[in-house]
Amino acid sequence: MASVHESLYFNPMMTNGVVHANVFGIKDWVTPYKIAVLVLLNEMGRTGEGAVSLMERRRLNQLLLPLLQGPDITLSKLYKLIEESCPQLANSVQIRIKLMAEGELKDMEQFFDDLSDSFSGTEPEVHKTSVVGLFLRHMILAYSKLSFSQVFKLYTALQQYFQNGEKKTMEDADMELASREEGERKMEKEELDVSIREEEVSCSGPLSQKQAEFFLSQQASLLKNDETKALTPASLQKELNNLLKFNPDFAEAHYLSYLNNLRVQDVFSSTHSLLHYFDRLILTGAESKSNGEEGYGRSLRYAALNLAALHCRFGHYQQAELALQEAIRIAQESNDHVCLQHCLSWLYVLGQKRSDSYVLLEHSVKKAVHFGLPYLASLGIQSLVQQRAFAGKTANKLMDALKDSDLLHWKHSLSELIDISIAQKTAIWRLYGRSTMALQQAQMLLSMNSLESVNAGVQQNNTESFAVALCHLAELHAEQGCFAAASEVLKHLKERFPPNSQHAQLWMLCDQKIQFDRAMNDGKYHLADSLVTGITALNSIEGVYRKAVVLQAQNQMSEAHKLLQKLLIHCQRTRNTEMVISVLLSVAELYWRSSSPTIALPVLLQALALSKEYRLQHLASETVLNLAFAQLILGIPEQALSLLHMAIEPILADGAVLDKGRAMFLVAKCQVASAASCEPLKKAEALEAAIENLNEAKNYFAKVDCKEQIRDVVYFQARLYHTLGKTQERNRCAMLFRQLHQDLPFHGVPLINLL
Amino acid sequence: MIGWGGRDRKMAASSSIVSVAPTASSVPVLPSSCDFSNLREIKKQLLLIAGLTRERGLLHSSKWSAELAFSLPALPLSELQPPPPITEEDAQDMDAYTLAKAYFDVKEYDRAAHFLHGCNSKKAYFLYMYSRYLSGEKKKDDETVDSLGPLEKGQVKNEALRELRVELSKKHQARELDGFGLYLYGVVLRKLDLVKEAIDVFVEATHVLPLHWGAWLELCNLITDKEMLKFLSLPDTWMKEFFLAHIYTELQLIEEALQKYQNLIDVGFSKSSYIVSQIAVAYHNIRDIDKALSIFNELRKQDPYRIENMDTFSNLLYVRSMKSELSYLAHNLCEIDKYRVETCCVIGNYYSLRSQHEKAALYFQRALKLNPRYLGAWTLMGHEYMEMKNTSAAIQAYRHAIEVNKRDYRAWYGLGQTYEILKMPFYCLYYYRRAHQLRPNDSRMLVALGECYEKLNQLVEAKKCYWRAYAVGDVEKMALVKLAKLHEQLTESEQAAQCYIKYIQDIYSCGEIVEHLEESTAFRYLAQYYFKCKLWDEASACAQKCCAFNDGGGDDRAV
């Protein structure tokens, strides 16, 4: 047998294991720091109304709660905190502690004896059930439970604590000396010196159960709401390990460790922590016999469910499904409807790819309402709305549903869901091509105060919904040619969601897309091409589409065509309608660029039908634009013009600047083409109108730096001026054209053949 | 024979630690070559080190050396070594040392340390430091019960460790530590969780004083895998062989360990009860139950009052359900010393075999009270709770076992079983996988994994598991049958038949007459298979065999 060491046999009582956490039955115990806080409370009680100004008293009261809940801090830090709120009190506290620490044991005993006086009398200083009162009573109880040797130990600890606070400067010198002696050996690991760890307060010493609970809940909520404010993954893990070393039975720490591991996408350790948590949770369930079998079985079900969630998060869908089946089976066996509801929602998440999944979801929502689970219900409604939006349901129905669920949110103050709801509205409006509405919703979310403020100074949390809304905002601005504003938004995003945080991918994609669009407008195709890889890494479908667009622009038609066909098939299978229409448009463009506009027509009609069916206004008007262009090429400009009149209104209202420019340009072309057969006077009039429109188009193009399009416009204008005999204007335009033409490479596509 | 021709008795210290070598001269020179040819020399060294360790209160090392020395033939009077000469320093500290040693022996460590303060001789200095260390440990353990609060219990630490470390590191840097001092320094570092530094110091200690088994043993506990072992520069001494054998056993490299132990027996340590017991444990680890049992029986005859390793023995008896032997062993050990961890464990096993699981759990708990780091008891207690259908307590016990030692495959396996009983096949996969990682060549985990996959209807994975289980050598001989049944389910009759044939061959080749219920199924399936393939002769042969089992069913007769 591998004996660990001889001493083992002398002393069978080891630290690990046997003594359980709750043997003592108390959650809190007296530490030197707590004594210092008690002294502060006592002092506050003793100084009457007059001595401390109202302002100072208010500051002190604000200070108290963090002091009571937070981890132990050093004496000097405590002094500093008190001093900031009320200097004279800090002084008296200091004196009292000094007297106690430098006096005798009986001083401390006396102090605790006197503590309970604050409750006595007809008008007690402290109410028994107040926060402070509870704390005081906890402390008195914990103190009276101490055994003889423990009391003495506490007193020596107090002295130590006091001395550490007093001689901080001297200790610094000592530390240097010690570190010189130790050479390069790692000091931080061994906790040789207390003063080393003073730097990182949160790391110092063990936390009492209450403090630990506070720490865990704080960090967990930060992880959920505002990742940047939480400790970094590494330091949080260190902290947790520390906590677990002091108390291996503290199961919640394992859960936090699981969450923490999720942040860094570590499958292995997160699984480990999760399972460990549930193993441990089962123990605590067993300890509380009142719950009996019920509590125990419950944790089993949720263990399986959480495992499913974990696998789902890492994209192991098959594994997740197996785990989920298990959870469902156990939950069914024990008639746990609430758990089953959760399972049902997850089932939907897993089955999202399937077409009939909305049935599940509808069912889930109904049941959740029935069992009174508002969170689950409205989450279900939101998913349903999302799903229906993709399936082309009318906006009013969706908005109605969202409004109903909003009612629910406000009633139960589910602030997280409110945020999501608004972000979703933004997305839906954008999907339908109503940029103004989208803009308005995004602004609304951003200027709204969150219900639960994490830190006093900050009203908003850094949740996913905010990231989504901000991304939309950036894209909307970029569409309108306000690139400076867009990049400003992106900069803000970068600050709020640093590149390694959970939601960073959202803005990364958005950023790349905007850059890509700009590069394309500029005609810098090589630049766009280099961005494609980045986009593909974040979203493969989008990446492929952009690749095809670049290829098309570079006149590599057959490659582009191949890619687009593949993409089309894929998107049709996955029911990504938005992408299908975009791809169809690209295909159509390919056709007329290779001078076969007749083939393009059925493709465009298909796209139009789809976009009308799914009510994607933005794409619909773009399709109409394409259609009109095709008709123009086919020689029926009158038809094209009437078609354009239909589409021009929504484009000018909601479309991107580029689209507006293209539309106006096309209108001008059609006007010219249809005026060809008219009598001269009318013709001149039409040409004048066309020139006006061209000017407008030119303005739009200038906004988004589309030099190529501007060149075309200028060329066209010059020709028109020439026809009208306005030589001076003609020459001006021709000169502009020449300048632009020298700057830009010629792509070998006839000018007229470009939309 | 071990073929190192190191007859020229080179100094153990290699060049890397030459600077330390002079310090060793203050202790009587203890050369030890890597050669086993001179057993007398080895015996002399063992006797010497036994004395030295005893003087320093290192009782377990002393015991180990003495045991090993005892297994070698006795020396004639002329060869007996005189006790090491007493130096001037020793003489000065003699009184203090004698007094302190007496106090030390009655566990009054602080008192011993007090009287040793200021002594200069190496021996007295070591005892001084060691007393302080043990005093700290003792206080720490007493403190645990009496700490200020529950969460503080993990924080209770040996207050003396820090001071000891500082002092020892000063001495270490000044190269003033002898082998024992280095050993103590290493122990202190390990207790402070400075594993890397501790390993370095222990390696140094083995160079300076290769004969001290304690240092080797500490090293064993710090090394977690084969890779780490490879990168250690260990002294070339015969002690290294013992160390390697021991660590191979620890790292579950049983084949290598057995080889080493066999070599040691061949060179003349055949009487050593230590080696014999280690071999028995090794056989236990590879589930060669019969061999292990016979070796243990032999050991019991040689050394009837031995308590160490008897828990392993009882495990074996338990596996073979040898009730009377186990009962005898339990009573015997109880008479020798009932407050030993091993005794409690044996009694626990005994009760468990008699299906008195409550009592069994009680005894395992008692074992844990005696030594909370006694890993086996946690696992066994988990098993008992499983038997009592108290799954939550079982999980707790297993988790504790894992906390003590993460590499305890039985605890992982037990956790897996618990969740399997709770009908969570997917959930238990993780645990079985962990167990399988730790024992990649153990068929039981693979079969368990296979069963889980089968329950999850992932037949492809299940097949892989069963096949692998068969390939690594199936202990329970069930993998093939299960594989065959899977193939049957998937209507892959060809493969199913192959599996059944292999299974029958396996059963017959090992010649065991154990009740194998599946044999008849195998024959029956084979008969049907041959029948389908129109191989009438084979079919009828199989059918006849099947009839011999009496439960073949009607369709065989149809053939």
Automatic annotation (TrEMBL), chain A:
Lineage: superkingdom:
Eukaryota
Q: Where in the cell is it found?
A: Cytoplasm, Cytoskeleton, Spindle; Nucleus
Concerning InterPro entries, the annotation shows: Apc5 (IPR037679), Apc5_dom (IPR026000), Apc5_N (IPR048968), TPR-like_helical_dom_sf (IPR011990)
Q: Which residues form the Anaphase-promoting complex subunit domain?
A: 254-353, 458-490
Q: Which GO terms describe its molecular function?
A: protein phosphatase binding
Keyword set includes Mitochondrion: no
On whether Nucleus is a keyword of this UniProt record, the answer is: yes
Query: Residue limits of the Anaphase-promoting complex subunit 5 N-terminal domain?
Result: 30-168
Principal subcellular localization = cytoplasm
Q: What keyword terms does UniProt attach to this protein?
A: Cell cycle, Cell division, Cytoplasm, Cytoskeleton, Mitosis, Nucleus, Phosphoprotein, Repeat, TPR repeat, Ubl conjugation pathway
Any GO BP: protein K48-linked ubiquitination
**Gene Ontology CC:** anaphase-promoting complex; spindle
Query: Which Pfam family, any one of them, does this sequence belong to?
Result: ANAPC5
> What does the similarity note say?
Belongs to the APC5 family.
Describe the protein's quaternary organization and the partners it interacts with: The mammalian APC/C is composed at least of 14 distinct subunits ANAPC1, ANAPC2, CDC27/APC3, ANAPC4, ANAPC5, CDC16/APC6, ANAPC7, CDC23/APC8, ANAPC10, ANAPC11, CDC26/APC12, ANAPC13, ANAPC15 and ANAPC16 that assemble into a complex of at least 19 chains with a combined molecular mass of around 1.2 MDa; APC/C interacts with FZR1 and FBXO5.
Question: What PANTHER family does the annotation carry?
Answer: ANAPHASE-PROMOTING COMPLEX SUBUNIT 5
Give the protein's recorded name.
Anaphase-promoting complex subunit 5
Organism in which the protein naturally occurs = Bos taurus (Bovine)
From TrEMBL, chain B:
One GO cellular component term, please give it: anaphase-promoting complex
Task: Reply yes or no: does the keyword Kinase apply.
Answer: no
Supply one GO BP term: cell division
Q: Which PROSITE patterns match?
A: TPR (PS50005)
Pathway(s) annotated for this protein in UniProt: Protein modification; protein ubiquitination
Q: Report domain Cdc23 positions.
A: 42-280
Question: What Pfam families does the record tag this protein with?
Answer: ANAPC8, TPR_11, TPR_8
Q: Which SMART domains match?
A: TPR (SM00028)
- The record's TPR repeats, renumbered to this chain, cover 341-374, 375-408
Keyword Endoplasmic reticulum part of the UniProt annotation: no
What keywords were assigned to this record?
A: Acetylation, Cell cycle, Cell division, Isopeptide bond, Mitosis, Phosphoprotein, Repeat, TPR repeat, Ubl conjugation, Ubl conjugation pathway
Q: What does this protein do?
A: Component of the anaphase promoting complex/cyclosome (APC/C), a cell cycle-regulated E3 ubiquitin ligase that controls progression through mitosis and the G1 phase of the cell cycle. The APC/C complex acts by mediating ubiquitination and subsequent degradation of target proteins: it mainly mediates the formation of 'Lys-11'-linked polyubiquitin chains and, to a lower extent, the formation of 'Lys-48'- and 'Lys-63'-linked polyubiquitin chains. The APC/C complex catalyzes assembly of branched 'Lys-11'-/'Lys-48'-linked branched ubiquitin chains on target proteins.
Q: Which family does it belong to?
A: Belongs to the APC8/CDC23 family.
The subunit structure is: The mammalian APC/C is composed at least of 14 distinct subunits ANAPC1, ANAPC2, CDC27/APC3, ANAPC4, ANAPC5, CDC16/APC6, ANAPC7, CDC23/APC8, ANAPC10, ANAPC11, CDC26/APC12, ANAPC13, ANAPC15 and ANAPC16 that assemble into a complex of at least 19 chains with a combined molecular mass of around 1.2 MDa; APC/C interacts with FZR1 and FBXO5. Interacts with FBXO43; the interaction is direct.
- Tell me what this protein is called: Cell division cycle protein 23 homolog
Species whose genome carries this gene: Bos taurus
Q: Which gene encodes it?
A: CDC23
